Amino acid sequence: MKSALLNIQSLLLLATTLLQSHYATSRIPIIHSYPHLSLSVKDYGATGTGLQYDTVSIQSAIDDCSSAFFLHRRRCLVKFPPGKYLTATLYLKTGVTLNISENATVLGGTRLEDYPEKQDRWYVVVAEDAADVGITGGGEINGQGLEFVKRFDERKNVMVSWNETGACLGDECRPRLVGFIGCRNVRVWDVSFNEPAYWCLHVVRCQNTSIHDVSIYGDFNSPNNDGIDIEDSNNTLITRCVIDTGDDAICPKTYTGPIYNLTATDCWIKTKSSAIKLGSASSYAFKHLIFDNITIVESHRGLGLQIRDGGNVSDITFSNINITTRYYDPSWWGRAEPIYVTTCPRDSNSKAGSISNLQFINITSVSENGVFLSGSKGGILSDLKFVNVNLTYKRWTNYTDGLVDYRPGCQGLVNHSTTAGFVMEHIDGLVFENVNMRWSKEKTGLWNIPLDFRPSTVNNVSLLHFYSGLYRGENKDVEYF
Q1: Rounded CA gap, 312 and 314, in Å?
Q2: What is the CA radius of gyration of the chain?
Q3: Percentage of residues in the chain with pLDDT exceeding 70?
Q4: What is the model's pLDDT at position 73?
């Protein structure tokens, strides 16, 4: 009997302990076990007419949402019902996601006074030193970039620049669209970013960023309207994005620190500049970058590396990529190269960086120019590999041929007189495996050198199943020589 009582008392004690434990832990909010809080900008007085500024109302909703996050430990949505919301700079804060619904547009202001005093904070929406922030909802953020065009030009639009007011220097003094600076756990998805006046989506010194199911559209004739610029940031994923813009589409840069672990997959790109470009800002390392399953359409340049400031590049893979490139105009960097890999000092005060362990696997291209691989005396290209690569060269525009483009800086535009399948210099370690190069029959005279290199600067080359011949037509009949 005594033993039974002890057992009952033990069970009661255990039950009491468990209940106390449950009661204690139930008072500690677990973010993912509760629905998101949500606040509507309309409840804060936003008109949504697009005719008057709704900045104060929207910012008040963001501020309260962030306060609620810290109070309840639950992420908070700031909702934009259908309408147009004209605004000066909005400051996105910790714990807040902007939920811009379908048929809702956030319109960036076009006045200098709509933006902060410091030029590097000129964004329509910016988050700084924030965590757990995002933008979604199916709607749009629009920078009204066409309002910044001083003169429309099919070659390259002439843009309004606020340097005329003394607010900045140079000719790129226009506001960016969206920026995340020094943030953690950023997620941008199911949203459109349109008509930036300058760069579109700018990720700076951030950790753990996810960008997916985003569409970006910028005017095709406007300079500097980059799609996604990843700067000094680590652990970044870009997937299922559509980018149609006038300048570089996906552009990793290193100004103040390295870039590690960037993956971009399943994207569609059209641009008047480079579809993917590392640099030209390249003071620090680029390492462990993967670009896979990407379609590049009628772009001025396909895959580009412009290392100009001493940073080193290593362990980069481009795979399963379909490319078409064409000439647009010499005023834009690029000569329709499907692949462009360069290192050279930007100027006399710079040093060359290096590029190593670079792989191109399962690449198909139709282009008006060949592949350009150019290291420099102080920045050798090493251990480059091309595996299962199909290159078709044919001309369908009438721009001047035979120019090699080293810009920015370096040698500028150089008359090379001939057009080659591969132009190569300052390389140590180059492997071709199952590379098929086809030449257009219509202008055969332009294509007279499959491999153009100076042996004194190109060493340790391996060719396994390398083919070069005339392209006869869509039946893919190739006459090899």
Answers
A1: 7
A2: 27
A3: 89
A4: 85
Sign of the alpha-carbon torsion through 66, 71, 75, 77: negative
CA distance 374 to 324: 21
- Domains, the chain: 33-247 (2.160.20.10), 298-481 (no CATH)
Instruction: Note the pLDDT tens digit of each residue in 300-317.
Output: 999 999 999 999 999 999
Residue 25, number of CB atoms within 10 A of its CB: 9
**Rounded to a whole number, what is the distance in angstroms from the first to the last CA of the chain?**
101
Contact of 389 with 363, CB cutoff 8 Å: yes
Other CB atoms within a 10 A radius of the CB of residue 439 amount to 25
d(CA 442, CA 94): 59
Q: What are phi and psi of 342, to 5 degrees?
A: -140, 145
Instruction: State the pairing for strand pair 76-80/96-100.
Output: parallel
DSSP 172-220: ----EEEEEES-EEEEEEEEEEE--SS-SEEEES-EEEEEEEEEEE--T
**E strand spans, 286-425:** 286-299, 301-307, 313-325, 339-343, 355-367, 371-374, 381-393, 403-405, 413-415, 419-425
Q: Cα dist. 328→233, 301, 303, 306 in Å?
A: 32, 10, 16, 20
pLDDT digits (tens, 9 = 90+) for 315-370: 999 999 999 999 998 889 999 999 999 999 998 888 889 999 999 999 999 999 99
Give the global pTM: 0.90
Residue that wins the pLDDT comparison between 348 and 264: 264
Question: What distance in Å separates the CA atoms of residue 389 and residue 125, rounded to the nearest whole number?
Answer: 41
| Span 148-179, pLDDT tens digits | 999 999 999 999 999 988 889 888 999 999 99
Residue 179 to residue 226: CA distance in whole angstroms: 13
Residues whose CB is less than 8 angstroms from the CB of residue 445 and which lie 6 or more positions away in sequence, other chains included: none
